[in-house]
Automatic annotation (TrEMBL):
This is Aspartate carbamoyltransferase. Residues 2-143 form the Aspartate/ornithine carbamoyltransferase carbamoyl-P binding domain. It comes from Yoonia ponticola. SUPFAM superfamilies: Aspartate/ornithine carbamoyltransferase (SSF53671). HAMAP family: Asp_carb_tr. It catalyses: carbamoyl phosphate + L-aspartate = N-carbamoyl-L-aspartate + phosphate + H(+). Catalyzes the condensation of carbamoyl phosphate and aspartate to form carbamoyl aspartate and inorganic phosphate, the committed step in the de novo pyrimidine nucleotide biosynthesis pathway. Reversibly catalyzes the transfer of the carbamoyl group from carbamoyl phosphate (CP) to the N(epsilon) atom of ornithine (ORN) to produce L-citrulline.
Length: 314
């Protein structure tokens, strides 16, 4: 593929290829041997929405692979003077970047931008739509902890309705033939999830019964524009992951959270820090490896396309 815009268009074999390569990078992330992979290539990171993990790990991944990495300060860009997203994209495209990493608050904005540029675009999260590298790093974390990424029972809990992380994970876990249980209050459960083969629960203890993986989500108040926002105290009581609720999952179930995490809202701090159950720090670690693998594969494709175009004119 030319871009990585979502999990939806990926074939299970493409997911496995990417995870296998990411696994190799995870075993040896700092090796100088990787420095030639993106040598001579330019990577531009454009984050129109806040990020800690995704932006830092894309920057590190690019640098470890030898790319020239530029972080656009979007708050200080000419978007503030009224320039459109497309004009910004065309302007940057004229500088010939090879890889563009884009996060945007609007669903579909990254796809739109990808149609206007010649380089490879990686979606770093667009609105409520997709966050493909998050789902891939979650899959690698699960595969390393459980030894496989198929035929597992996975609970995705919390604000499913506003979550691009949930959407990309539902796509990926479904393609890899896992059982997906969604647990959320009715107001935070999207409609139509049954068509993706997900089981729906509104009660944590019932939904967590005998699962292998517990994936918690943050309450995304920034996307609840004007809608119902639950009280944090009430929400924690019913949907916050604590030891009592976790006891319903399998004894060796792992606990995940994409971050940023709100302790005492969707998860108890002791559970988040319990190194016997929580793989939250591993998720961050795998984020760098997955982004190295994604950019490596897209760069190979970019070189092949440029080589073919050159042959065409000679
Ligand atoms: N998980 C995730 O996307 O985190 P950031 O918003 O910090 O990048």
């Amino acid at each position: 593929a030319q871009h990585l815009l979502g999990i939806e268009p990926l074939h299970p074999t493409e997911i496995t290829t990417l995870l296998d390569l990411a696994d190799q990078y995870a075993n040896d992330p700092n090796s100088v041997r990787h420095r030639d992979v993106l040598a001579g290539m330019t990577q531009i990171n454009m984050f129109f929405e806040n990020s800690t993990r995704t932006q830092a790990s894309f920057e590190l991944a690019g640098k470890r692979l030898g790319a020239d990495v530029m972080n656009m300060a979007m708050q200080a860009s000419s978007l503030k003077k009224g320039e459109t997203l497309i004009d910004t994209a065309l302007t940057l495209n004229a500088m010939h970047p090879d890889l563009l990493v884009v996060r945007h608050p609007h669903s579909g904005a990254v796809d739109l931008l990808a149609q206007k540029v010649n380089g490879a675009v990686l979606n770093a999260g667009d609105g409520k739509h997709e966050h493909p590298t998050q789902a891939l790093l979650d899959a690698l974390t699960i595969r390393r902890a459980k030894g496989r990424i198929h035929r597992l029972s996975v609970a995705i809990c919390g604000d499913v309705a506003h979550s691009r992380v949930a959407r990309s994970n539902i796509m990926l876990l479904g393609k890899m033939e896992n059982r997906i249980r969604l647990i959320a209050p009715p107001t935070l459960m999207p409609s139509g999830v049954a068509e993706f083969g997900c089981e729906v629960f509104h009660d944590m203890e019932e939904g967590l019964k005998d699962v292998d993986v517990v994936m918690m989500l943050r309450l995304q108040k920034e996307r609840m524009d004007g809608g119902f926002i639950p009280s944090e105290r009430e929400y924690y009581h019913r949907y916050g992951l604590d030891a009592a609720k976790l006891a319903h999952a399998k004894p060796d179930a792992i606990v995940m959270h994409p971050g940023p995490m709100n302790r005492g809202v969707e998860i108890d701090g002791t559970i988040a820090d319990d190194i016997n159950r929580s793989v939250i720090q591993t998720q961050v670690e795998m984020g760098v490896a997955v982004r190295m693998a994604a950019m490596d594969l897209l760069a190979r494709n970019l070189r092949a396309r440029r080589g073919a175009a050159l042959e065409g004119v000679m």
